[in-house]
């Protein structure tokens, strides 16, 4: 298991709070796919889809494919150990500048590299970066960490 320090991503998010790191969704999706295969549910879905009141079962192949995608969302190593996006511009920038994280950069609030996180996290990463910059890593780990936050 990674130490708490290693789970603070360069962007200020805490990997330990991430569903991909925790793996529960990936495990549940894997197990559900296994059960569906064991019961040959594709056959059942095809039969049910023939009835108007069960027409949504026409989408079963797509659903099964999405479950497969959820299985692949596992990210056990965390950001600092190479997890997440292998081409992450945030990680590359911090490593190039020898920063522990964006909180060491005076320009993080206006950084375009952080903008793509807003869709999944709102401004959580910015709030975390402010905490990290103000209080330091140990206090951040002991206190509140946002995963999703609005302004």
Describe this entry's structure for a reader.
The protein has 8 helices and no strands. It is mainly alpha-helical and 151 residues long. The protein folds into 2 domains: 1-18 and 78-151, no CATH class; 24-73, no CATH class. It is elongated, with a radius of gyration of 20 Å. The model has no long low-confidence stretch (mean pLDDT 95).
List keywords for this structure.
151 residues, mainly alpha, 2 domains, 8 helices
SSE order and pairing:
Layout: H1 19-22, H2 24-38, H3 41-48, H4 60-71, H5 89-96, H6 118-121, H7 124-135, H8 137-142
Helix pairs in contact: 2-4
Low-confidence stretches: none
Helix/strand-derived class? mainly alpha
Amount of helix: 40-55%
- What integer is the average pLDDT? 95
Number of domains: 2
The counted number of beta strands is 0
Quote the beta fraction.
Answer: under 5%
Spatial separation of the terminal alpha carbons: 33 Å
Q: State the major sheet.
A: none
Number of helices: 8
Secondary-structure element string: HHHHHHHH
């Amino acid at each position: 298991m990674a130490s708490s320090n290693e789970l603070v991503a360069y962007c200020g998010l805490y990997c330990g709070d991430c569903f991909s790191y925790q793996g529960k969704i990936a495990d549940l999706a894997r197990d559900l796919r296994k059960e569906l295969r064991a019961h040959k549910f594709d056959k059942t879905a095809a039969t049910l889809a023939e009835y108007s009141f069960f027409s949504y079962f026409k989408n079963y192949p797509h659903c099964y494919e999405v479950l497969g995608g959820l299985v692949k969302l596992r990210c056990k190593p965390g950001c600092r150990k190479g997890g997440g996006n292998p081409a992450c511009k945030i990680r590359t920038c911090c490593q190039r500048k020898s920063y522990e994280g964006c909180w060491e950069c005076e320009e993080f609030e206006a950084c375009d590299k952080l903008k793509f996180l807003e869709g999944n996290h709102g401004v959580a990463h910015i709030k975390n970066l402010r905490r990290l910059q103000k209080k330091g890593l140990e206090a951040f780990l002991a206190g509140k960490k946002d995963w999703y936050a609005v302004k």
